[in-house]
Amino acid sequence: MYIHFIAIGGSAMHNLALALHNKDYKITGSDDAVYEPSRTRLLQKGLLPKEMGWFPEKITANLDAVILGMHAREDNPELQKATELNIPVYSYPEFLYEQSKEKTRVVIGGSHGKTTITSMVLHVLKYHQKEVDYMVGAQLEGFDTMVHLTKENDFIVLEGDEYLSSPIDRRPKFHLYKPNIALLSGIAWDHINVFPTYENYVDQFRIFIDSIVKGGILVYNEEDLQLKKLVSETTNTIRKHPYQTPEFRVEDEKTLLQTPEGDMPVSVFGSHNLQNLAGAKWICQHMGIDEEDFYEAISSFKGASKRLERIAETSKAIVFKDFAHSPSKVMATTKAVKHQYPKKQIVACLELHTYSSLNAEFLREYQGALNAADTAVVYFSPEAIQNKKLAPVAEEQIFNAFDRKDLQVYTNPEDFQKLLEQQHYEDVVLLLMSSGTYGGLDFNKIAEWIK
């Protein structure tokens, strides 16, 4: 097949391009900018566009399909040319479904934890040498790409994102996969630029549950009351398997998971991560991995990239980097670190970077989110707010939203970096939570600062 990617440089898009290239498809692509690591990875396979920009002449009648990335716009000239030539245009999830119609589709969804659960499942399957196709939202240790597609594998494991599919397909991605086996980790309002009300957001999960094939399986977190209600209301004829946080304890800064064979040390920590582990166990069992084999494999799981990722450590300090940005995830991650390291000072830094987190109305959802930290810091960029065309946010609004009098708020990246550099790192855990970079922070320098 001959496929052209519009916006090939995206994290998911370039991984799909690499996966199809590995299947011997002919691949071309365009983008107005391609950043690392996408740039180097595409270059190594000869897939990096020679020029940045959009070129309608790349769209020719001999193309079998065009895959449209979320980064492109509706008036993209290459998209318009493809439409004129009646070339099939797919969104990223739409094409993944086309590639997996004949497979057993396992879809991991939920407002939080889906990358970690998908990563756990793939780690366990790889450990037991069970080959599957997959798509995951983070780079995993031991896996070359975030997307892997074959003709022969029976299963495909898909991380099911609730965000929109493409500029011309406003359906959430996970609505397109039609799972045989599904997992939902929980519901916490997010993406308010797309789902302006909580009720509208919840409806997307109701639709997802109804999209599971008849006779299929839904594994769900029964501790989430909203999700439990949705599952009880569905008329879809599916099997339902609830899970909850397993028994565990923390001893000498180590998490011990209670198993039928006794207490087992695990690298991941925090109630939310142990809850993720319980969900992953159910999914693996439905894929033919028994409980004992699951525990054997999961004991060596170190975590997904940017999910409580330990990026620096000395005898006096530890630094974690985490993708957390939504209120529920920020609260869960901060609590997890304090629970794991009760005798250390927890310095929690959150960057408000997403459309939702910079929305003045949504900010109130963060009330108490950083209360578990000994020192709480929030960084945001007024310039980012302007770029997103949002109403200005005053520092006072941040203080009121988080409801913490000793909160430190920074809007200048140099001042924020100076705070980290001059911090007294004695029995300290530094937790950096962001889906951005704090205005260009060099994370590699932190190892020097904590010495």
CATH architecture of the largest domain, by name, is: 3-Layer(aba) Sandwich
Question: What separation lies between the terminal Cα atoms?
Answer: 53 Å
Q: What is the 3D shape?
A: globular
As laid out across the biggest beta sheet, the strand order is 7-6-8-5-11-12-13
Number of domains: 3
Mean pLDDT: 94
The biggest beta sheet reads: 7 strands, mixed
Domain Mur ligase central: 108-280
Pfam families: Mur_ligase (PF01225), Mur_ligase_C (PF02875), Mur_ligase_M (PF08245)
Domain Mur ligase N-terminal catalytic: 3-102
InterPro entries: Mur-like_cat_sf, Mur_ligase_C, Mur_ligase_C_dom_sf, Mur_ligase_cen, Mur_ligase_N, MurCDEF_pg_biosynth
Please name the defining characteristics of this protein.
ligase, Mur_ligase_cen, 14 helices, Protein-Tyrosine Phosphatase, Chain A, cell wall biogenesis/degradation, 7-stranded mixed β-sheet, 6-stranded mixed β-sheet, Rossmann fold, UDP-N-acetylmuramoyl-L-alanine:D-glutamate ligase, 451 residues, Mur_ligase_N, cell division, 3 domains, alpha/beta, single chain
